[in-house]
C-alpha cells in the first residue's frame, strides 16, 4: 500500500480499511528506517493517522501545513513523495530531519525551534485574507510541548482576535494530560461549536436578553455559564475559548473517521478553530511504549525489534557535566538547576532524581528560564541553566538585560556547541561565542576535555556577581590532554622549537591543534599551542605571550565573525600589539546537516589543512593583518 502513495492526492480514493492498513505500514516503515539512521521516532509514530487525515481533508501545498515542532513531520514527508529517500534521513545528501523547503513545495518552515509555527500560521493566514486568497487554509500542528513556549500564547492571543481567516490549529496532545472523550455527547457538542446556526443563535440570544431590563443580563450570564460549565466537564476547552478561540475536542487522534469529521468541520467554519487531538507517542512500537521517560523521542542507531542501541558505548560531554552537577549539588545547597524541557538531553535528569526541589523544568520557555534564574540569584541561590547552545539564541535579551545588567550570578551550560551535525542549520551551536562576547561582564569557558569541564564548572560557580557560561560539543568526550604548564590561567599544550606561531586552541579543538602543530614542526615551523580555558574576556596573559611570536592563529568552532579571533584582534589593537593574526573557524553561513567530522573536513578544519595553512602563512607574514581563512576545501554550505 505504501508504495502507491506518491502524493497526498493518492490518499483520496482509499477506504478506511485501506487507510488502517496504510497506517500500520507507515509505522513499520518508520521503525525500520529510523532505527538505521537515528532520528525522532516516538513523535512520528504518534501522528500517523493525524497526518493522513490532514492530507485527506486539506489540499497541500495550496493549503499550508505547518509543524511545531518540526521533528514530527516524517509522516508528512512520506505522504508527500519522499518515502524513497528515508535511507538517507539526516545523512549527508539525504533528507533533513525537519521540514526543508529545498526538498518539497509541501514544506514551509525550516527553523525547527519550537513554539514558532503559530506565529507563522498567523502571518500566512492573515496574508491570505489581505490578498483575498479566501480559498486557502492554514493548518498548524502543535505538539511535543510547543504550547509551553511563550511565543505560542502571543500568537494565540492575536489569532483569537480575528474572525475572517481559514486557520486550523491542531493541538497534538501526546502527553496523556487528558483522557480521550469519546461518545455521542462529545461529538454532538463539538459539532455544535462549529455550526454557524449555533453561533447565530447565541448572538441573537445575547442581543435580545441583554436588552431586557433588569433580568436580561443575569439570565444570559446564567444560561451562558451553564452551557460553558457543562462543556468544561466534558472537555478541557475552557482556557482556549476564554481566549476567544473556537474549540473542538478532545478527539481520538488515531480514529481516522473522528479526525476527518473534526477537521472537515474546522475547515468549513471559516474562522480560527482549535482542534484538540489525543495521540499516543510511540504508538505501535512496544519498546517506545515502555520507555516511560521519553517514549523514544529521539534515538540513535538501534535494533528495530528491541530498541537497544547498537552504537559503541562512550562517555559523552553531557555525562561528565551530569556527574559533576551531582557532586557540586551534594557540596552546596545553593545550587539549583534549570532547563527548558531538556532534563534528559542535558543530563539534569539525575540531578532532578537526587534534588527534586532544586530542579526546575520550565518547558520550552528559554526566555522565562533566564529571567527566572536572575530572580533565583537575587535570593542568594546560584542557578545553573543547561540548554543546547542553539537555544540560548532565543533568550539573548534576557541574558543581556535581566542577568548581566543586574549582576546576577547565573551559570549557563551550553551543550551541543559548535558544529553539531545531523539536525542541520537551526541546531548548530556556532553562534554562542559571538553572542556572549558582547555581553558586558560575561565570562565564557570552553573546556577541552573532561577534567577541564569539571574544573571550569566549579570555577564558574564561584562567580556570584556576573553571568558565566561553559560550552562543549555534542558527542563523546575526548581523552584528557594534559598541559605542560599553566601561565596565569592559560594552559600550554605544545611547545614549539621556535617562536614562529602561537596557535590559540578554543575548547574541543585542542586535539586537532596539537596534531597540526606536530605536522608543522616536521615542515620546520615552530608552533606553540595554548588553551585559554576562559575565552571571554581575553586573558591578559595571552596578550603577553603573543608578543614573542611572529604570528597568532586562532582555531575555534564558532563563527569567525565576532568570534574569539575577532576579540583577540581587538585586544591586540588596544594593547598596541602589531602581530599578524589568522582566523580558522566557521564561516558566516547556514550549514546543512551532515556528520560533524564531515562538516569540519568540508570547512578545512582538520590537522592536515591547518598545518599547511600555518606553514604557508609563516612564510609570508610580515606585518599585522587579519586575512580571511578561505576554507578552500569547503563544499557544504547553503
From TrEMBL:
Q: Which UniProt keywords apply?
A: Isoprene biosynthesis, Magnesium, Metal-binding, Thiamine biosynthesis, Thiamine pyrophosphate, Transferase
What is catalysed by this protein?
Answer: D-glyceraldehyde 3-phosphate + pyruvate + H(+) = 1-deoxy-D-xylulose 5-phosphate + CO2
Provide the E.C. number(s) assigned to this enzyme. Answer: 2.2.1.7
One GO biological process from the UniProt record?
thiamine biosynthetic process
What Pfam families has UniProt attached to this entry? DXP_synthase_N, Transket_pyr, Transketolase_C
Task: State the Gene Ontology terms under molecular function.
Answer: 1-deoxy-D-xylulose-5-phosphate synthase activity; magnesium ion binding; thiamine pyrophosphate binding
Part of which pathway? Metabolic intermediate biosynthesis; 1-deoxy-D-xylulose 5-phosphate biosynthesis; 1-deoxy-D-xylulose 5-phosphate from D-glyceraldehyde 3-phosphate and pyruvate: step 1/1
InterPro entries, per database record: Dxylulose-5-P_synthase, THDP-binding, Transketo_C/PFOR_II, Transketolase-like_Pyr-bd, Transketolase_BS, Transketolase_C, Transketolase_CS
The answer to whether UniProt assigns keyword Phosphoprotein to this entry is no
Domain Transketolase-like pyrimidine-binding, which positions?
A: 315-480
**Is Magnesium included in the keywords of this UniProt record?**
yes
Q: What does the record's cofactor remark say about binding? A: Binds 1 thiamine pyrophosphate per subunit.
Q: Name the top EC class.
A: transferase
List positions binding Mg(2+).
Answer: 144, 174
Query: What's one GO-annotated cellular component?
Result: cytosol
Identify the cofactor(s): thiamine diphosphate; Mg(2+)
Q: Which HAMAP family match?
A: DXP_synth
Role according to the record: Catalyzes the acyloin condensation reaction between C atoms 2 and 3 of pyruvate and glyceraldehyde 3-phosphate to yield 1-deoxy-D-xylulose-5-phosphate (DXP).
Which family does the similarity line name? Belongs to the transketolase family. DXPS subfamily.
- Quote the subunit structure annotation: Homodimer.
Protein's name according to its UniProt entry: 1-deoxy-D-xylulose-5-phosphate synthase
Q: Which organism is it from?
A: Candidatus Planktophila versatilis
